[in-house]
Each structure stands twice: as structure tokens, then as C-alpha cells.
Amino acid sequence: MSQFFSIHPETPQGRLINQAVEILQSGGVIAYPTDSAYALGCLLDNKSGAERIKQIRKLEDDHNFTLVCQDLSELSRYARVDNAAYRQIKHSTPGPYTFIFEASKEVPRRLMNPKRKTIGLRVPDNAIAQALLRELGEPLMSATLLLPGDDYPLSDPYDIRTTLERDVDLVIDGGYCGLDPTSVIDMSGDETQVLRQGLGDTTDFA
User: Fold this and answer.
1) Rounded CA gap, 189 and 45, in Å?
2) How far is Cα 18 from Cα 113, in angstroms, rounded to an integer?
3) C-alpha to C-alpha distance for 24 and 75, rounded to whole angstroms
4) In terms of CATH, what superfamily is 3-200?
5) Residue 167 to residues 21, 120, 173: CA-CA distances in angstroms?
6) What is the pLDDT of residue 112?
7) By the 8 A CB rule, do 97 and 185 touch?
8) Domain map (residue ranges) of the chain
9) Looking at residue 114, what is its pLDDT?
10) Which of 71, 78, 124, 175 has the maximal Cβ count within 10 Å?
11) What is the DSSP letter of 103?
């Protein structure tokens, strides 16, 4: 049975954030809110956690996870970001965007796109997610909480608890999240491409 923490969406309780981090550090998988939709997350080196997320989502082995980072300095550790790209994304972070970059050597090979050696990264504008990342001191390996056969992500934390109480170690109730995914911007090549129009405004990247 998973644990269930109700955490204030604007002023997260430090005690509960610390407990959530302990669950992650002990190999746990959590469902947590972001600025777009709820997500599933585990630590970067948690291979079994990644497999559990794949099972929940019924994902193929070559699915690309997103690294959810606290800020741009952390993002630049895991991706090759030149100065021009850094300036371009600075105005959109934190926010509901996933940026695709060439992965750095800090990223485990199993997390990269097997052909292009790229990785998706994002910096969420959500107080709970930011508190988790700040306490962790490292990114979360994440996937949107979109279950097989569903058109939209789960948005009600009580539904998430009922549906996934035997599949995850913790559900964080941070209130209702939206149903829109992030906008996905591919900046790994010579030209910037909008791969998916989601919640974020992509005018500056088109």
C-alpha cells in the first residue's frame, strides 16, 4: 500500500518533503504534481524504479524519460547547452516545457534516445516539485502519469491513490493538476523544432 501525503501547493511542509525524499532515496517511486500534470518519478540511478514506471505506463524499453531539474545550472550539467540555447530557454524556465538536448556524459546511457543520444529535461514551476528537487540535490527521472488507454493524465490525487496504491510507494496530494502535457522543444540539432504543442507558449521557439 502506498503512502499518501497532502502537501500544501504553495507552502510545502518541510517535514513531509523530507519524508518524501527519504522514500525516493530508499528506492521508491512516487506520484507527484508538476506545473502541467501529475508525474511518476524516481532517482536517476534507480533502475528498478524505472522498470516499475515502465510497467505502470506499459512503456517500450526505448522510451525516453525526462530529467526534471531544479534550475538551469543543473540542466546544463546533464545536457550540452550552448550559450545561444541557454539564453533562449532562460526566459521559459521554470515553466511547462520539456527541452531536448544532446545528453552529457552525466546521463546514464540507458536513459538516452538510443539513436540520437539525446535527453529531455525540464524545470517545473511548481512549489512541491521544486521543494523535492531542492532537498534531493539531484534531478528526478520522470514520466507523465498517463495510463495505458487513457487520453489524459490522471489529475485527481485521490483517483491516483485508488488506482496506483499497490504500484507506487507514495502519492503526493498537491491539489488538482491540469490535463495538458508540457510543450516539447527539440534543441539538439542545428534548428529548433517544436515537437509537441502543450501547455507552454512556443511562439519564441517556432
Assistant:
1) 27
2) 32
3) 20
4) DHBP synthase (3.90.870.10)
5) 18, 25, 16
6) 67
7) yes
8) 3-200
9) 64
10) 124
11) B
